[in-house]
Amino acid sequence: MSTLESIAADAIYHPAHLDDRAAMRALRAAIAAHPTADLGPEGRAAFDELIGRTPPAEGVTHAAGTLGGVSGWWCRPANHRAGTAILYLHGGAYGLGSARAYRNFAGQIAARAQVAAFVADYALAPERPFPAAVEDAEAAYRALADSGMARIGIVGDSAGGGLALVTAARMSSATRAGGVRPAAVVAMSPWTDLALTGQSYATRAQHDPLLTREALDHARRRYLVEADIKDERASPLYGDVADLPPVLLHVGEDEILLDDARRFAQRLKHAGSLGELHVWQDMVHVFPANVALLHAARAALDNIGEFLRHNLGSHSPATCVTCTHGDPQ
């Protein structure tokens, strides 16, 4: 994988692995046998049960915790590096998902990155609508920095991928005069445009077995209420990307959010920011969670782990804002 030493906004395309073709047919058949996912509060239990099927990574321990008043779960590899951490922001269209359900998936990334990860239980709509999720993500990030983490990566999927990009941009801007700026951000199948203007909402609609434009429209209304759909705190596609740290994007070719990732990569290119986009043939929304089933999922997670190790690796007082080390507790 490129170490992002040069701008790479053109997608790196991954043809479907032979072993994944049969697996994807079976996965699509299983999805088709169930009703369309409910992205509202009624769908929370089913969503948690589904994402919770991701197997735990070997050597990773899990423990409940709190950062900045935000509850969540720590995922700690046995060999995690001191002074570094990942803030993981889960998916679920801003109305679903929990840190407990996501701990195994986040643990898979933490193990590959060799970095402890905190999965935040940020605010969910409609109980706590926008901008509460942004405020919680920022509070958790600041608490990580205050605890002595000198290198912090932000990782997320789906809505959490969009939130990761928002948080990275806001924390990069806020810490220009001091503090800990994000070192890297990873977004899997990110929802970057709550205005829902990407062409792939139409061109990939017949290929995406998980998401529909109608379902996302309902989800954004619950989340935003009367807020601007192009507010950069909700739709990072319309925000300032010039100050972002290196960004890694992974997306399935068969999902309606394909253009949310593609267009964000183009914005990075035009701003002169470091970014790398990977598009995976035949893959669906947040396919890396299917690590037990798909070769592509394991390959994508390995790529993410390499990216995070590179960007959260060794550092010196000359290259970081603060070098107060400490193992996250």
Q: How would you explain this protein's 3D organization?
A:
It contains 9 helices and 9 strands. The chain is 35% helix and 17% strand. The chain is an alpha/beta fold and 329 residues long. Helix 3 (99-113) packs across helix 9 (295-311) and helix 4 packs across helix 5 (159-174). The protein starts with 7 loop residues before the first strand and ends in an 18-residue tail after the last helix.
Main features:
17% strand; Rossmann fold; 329 residues; nine-stranded mixed beta sheet; globular; disordered C terminus; alpha/beta; single chain
Count of domain modules: 1
Major sheet, described briefly?
9 strands, mixed
Radius of gyration: 18 Å
Q: Whole-Å distance between the termini?
A: 32 Å
CATH class: Alpha Beta
Percent range for β-strand residues: 15-25%
- Assembly type of the chains comes to single chain
**H-E string:** EHHEEEHEHEHEHHEHEH
Strand-helix topology:
Layout (H helix, E strand, L loop, with lengths): L7 E7 L3 H15 L11 H8 L8 E8 L2 E8 L6 E6 L9 H15 L3 E4 L11 H15 L4 E7 L1 H16 L9 E5 L11 H4 L9 H12 L22 E6 L5 H14 L3 E6 L14 H17 L18
Helix pairs in contact: 3-9, 4-5
